[in-house]
Amino acid sequence: MDSLPGMLSMLLDGAVDILDISEGLRKPVVEAYEEVGAWLADHGNPGCRVYPQGSFLLGTVVRPGTPGGEYDIDLVIRLLLARESITQKELKERIGRLLDDYRKWKADQGHTDGPGSLDSRRRCWTLGYPGFHLDVLPVIPDDEHPPTGILLTDENLFRWQHSDPIGYAVWFRARSEMTRRLLEKRHASVAGVPTWQTRTPVQRVVQILKWHCMITFAADLDNRPPSILLTTLAGRAYDGEDNLFTAVRIVLDNMTRFVERRGDQWWVPNPAHEEENFTDKWNEYPERRKAFYYWYDQITTMMNDLAAMEGKGLDAVYSRLTETFDREPVTKSYLRYTAEMNKKQLRMGATGLLTASASFTGRRVREHTFHGHGHLPRD
Amino acid sequence: MVTSRAINLGRQLAAIKSALPETQGTVHRGELRCTAVLQPTPASRRYTARLTYRHRRAPRVAIIDPPLALHPGATSLPHVYSNGDLCLYLPGQWKESMLLADTILPWASQWLLYYELWLITGHWMGNGHDHRSQVPPAGS
Asked: Does residue A147 have a cis bond before it (omega within 30 degrees)?
């Protein structure tokens, strides 16, 4: 926190931490989907597996900014069936029946923690729980891409869709952990890692990009760049920087280089599945590409503005942040920073800089209490 | 009450200049006067604070630049005296045997940190005894 990037990193980290899924909610989410998986396996589907995919698996969850916004947890239900033995429609319906049976069973048992709703969407079934919902994708193994490749259903598409969420998570984790190892090494001697810093810088970078994107396209969901595209470009562009603010800027400087031109097509390949193009929609709808670059310019401008705020005032930084981001997480992050400053032994540096860092050799600030106002002291 | 020896004003100023090398100051006719630049965090403004102090008097700190602002809805600054000097400590917390460089000036820097946070929230988030500062002042 002794530099502007350090200070901004701390404030941004605190804000996305507020939007991240809490430990308290993570537990019921995991229990809910593990129970669905166990029930399916016990009820005649021995090869069945239920596992998370997407942001929950990657550690990049961001709560939607809308009031009462719920966490969206993406899961896969994989039945061990051959592609030739079932159609997309049959698979979707079969999983739907199983989930419906599961709900009935929960009700028969008198359990009250079962899903309150079950709805069909284009590619998934959605199970509603208090505070979150599980989007469950019915899938079968993709024999052409063993061991983790899968085939998904899509009501609007005739062909099975290929995917590989586990392969993708392995790639993303490798991008994350290259610096987690560095971080651990660096902090081993200082014991100063804030307790909330459990995410790696690249996970936090992705959360900030997603948060910004979610807000930019709150009223234009169709054109919102998909999270998987932001995550992929960020993962590719990330260079191991452990200061979050600087890492976001480096990622922004580099990310558009990973958008390829193949013939007359825009391409961002899935790192776990080269044939999958995360920008295929850009070729069909050019306005989506424009929307992506509009967002990119917005976030780059915001980061440049913030980088120029040395000496402008904590309140001015707050105003700039809340010009873009929603107020609640930013305010909570400031409060958390204040609470940290209140708890720690502070030292003062040569320009009046206050720091709680133990390695800093400024003068120790003595205990005191700010006096009430109004009365002049004995003079 | 045990009274310990007051620290010589020349030594006070030397300690201030050692802690905050940009400080300008003099000791003249028993009065220490100095202006120090304080920036509590890298994002905070650089404030110029004026400190004046005589033995057997309370040290006085005023912010002379930039002008202090008010939180929207507030009618006065929290933790200042009626003449605009900062209220930094409770009676008895500061003694003449203490270095201003280890007490009054870091406390002023802390005051500025909480002031900038107060501009955002309208709440004084440092410790402090005046409950009126916890809510928008009623214009006392």
From this structure: yes
Inter-chain residue contact A371 with B128, CB threshold 8 Å: yes
In this structure, are residues A240 and A265 in contact, taking their beta carbons and an 8 Å threshold?
no
The pLDDT of residue A126 is 95
Phi, psi of A237 (to 5 degrees): -80, -20
Decide which of B20 and B5 is more confident.
B20
Q: How confident is the model at residue A257 (pLDDT cuts 50, 70, 90)?
A: very high
Is the torsion defined by CA of A299, A304, A310, A315 positive or negative?
Answer: negative
At residue A192, the 3 state secondary structure works out as coil
Ordered strands of the B31-38 beta sheet:
B24-28, B31-38, B47-53, B60-65
Cβ within 8 Å of residue A42, ≥6 positions away: none
pLDDT per position as a tens digit, B77-90: 999 998 999 999 98
Residue type, B23: T
Chain A segment 341-360 residues within 8 A of B by beta carbon are 341-342, 346, 348, 350-354
Percent of residues, chain A, with pLDDT higher than 90: 64
- Taking all residues of chain A, what is their mean pLDDT, rounded to a whole number? 88
Dihedral angle computed from the Cα positions of residues A28, A30, A36 and A37, in that order, rounded to the nearest 10 degrees = -160
Instruction: Kindly give the pairing relationship between strand B31-38 and strand B24-28.
Output: antiparallel
Could you report the per-residue pLDDT of A104-118, keeping only the tens digit for each?
999 999 999 999 999
CA distances from B70 to A347, A372, B67, B116, B123 (A): 27, 17, 10, 10, 12
Partner residue opposite B93 with nearest CB, options A354, A365, A369 = A369
CB < 8 Å to A370, chain B: 78-79, 87-89, 107, 111, 114, 124, 126-130
What pLDDT, on a 0 to 100 scale, did the predictor assign at position B135? Answer: 33
List all residues 6 or more positions away from B74 whose beta carbon is below 8 Å from its beta carbon: B122, B136, B137
ipTM above 0.85, yes or no: yes
pLDDT of residue A49: 87
Note the maximum CA span of chain B: 45
Write the single-letter amino acid at A218.
Answer: A
Confidence check: pLDDT of B130 > 50: no
Q: Please provide residue A204's backbone torsions phi and psi, each rounded to the nearest 5 degrees.
A: -65, -40
Q: For residues A78 and A17, give the distance between their C-alpha atoms in angstroms, rounded to a whole number.
A: 31
What domains appear along chain B, each with residue ranges and CATH number? Answer: 9-125 (3.10.110)
Phi, psi of A148 (to 5 degrees): -105, -5
Residues 6 or more apart whose CB falls under 8 angstroms from that of A331 comprise A322, B120, B121
